[in-house]
Amino acid sequence: MTPHERSGLAYAVTGFAVLSCGDAVVKSMAGEWPPYAVAALRFAIGAIGLSVLLWRKEGVEAFRPQNWKLQLARGICLAFASACFFTALFIMPMAEAMAIGFLAPILTQAFAGLFLREKVRPKVYLVSVAALAGVAMILRPNLAELGLAAFLPVGSAIFFALMMVANRASAGQGSALSAQAFIALFCAPILIVGATAAKFSGVPSLDFGWPSWDVAARCAVVAVTASTAHWLAYIGTTRAGAAQVAPAIYVQMLVVVVLGWAFFGEIPDTMTLIGASVIIASGLYLWRDGVRAGKIAELQAERT
Description:
304 residues; mainly alpha; 12 helices
């Protein structure tokens, strides 16, 4: 690995670690404001900030998406993924919610074949079954305590995987900054409408008032850290390549375990660690197999 690639990997690792720090900030708001309201405010702040950056860097013309239906699909997926994940962080240990969330990269490969007609290696489906077994290990104790709410991280992983498929489909339709801005601009209104509907639904448990200043400040921190993390991961990818950077995402698990133990007194049990190991191993296997298949394809292309 060249020094340039090593610096790229360092950028990516830092970005994913920062992203996990943002998750810890989200969890710190549990019981102070509803998770769907937190998600709405976080993405509203993010949409405003990213829009200002996009306007200053690329001008008004950059706000015209080439395919607004595709951008809407990205926003819908992110809205549901975020609402599910934020709620999961509120009611479950961080390590468990994060470990199940690692199902998303595996599901992305399977969904790419279904929706984009990409060729999917049979191994993807076999490894997906193994990863689901890991999810079952983590969910088993939570089902008795939380009921169907224990499946929230699974829902988040599904919607996040669908978002990644939509991201692939929208590749080349603008800069990286415009892609971030568009998804936030479409996601924020959906979450705001959802939070407003919950407030005025007449269900007492869904009602909420204005956030305290520190909750609003923490939502702003999450918005800034998330955008910074995505930027760092993007820089890492441009320097080291997607194949080199992909495994760095699993640094999130280590950071989450440390933060969960340090700030929330959460210590993962043996079953959670085993399940997380199965999911992470499945993801790493698919990554390595994909890299190998890519190199073989390159060699065959050179020979022909």
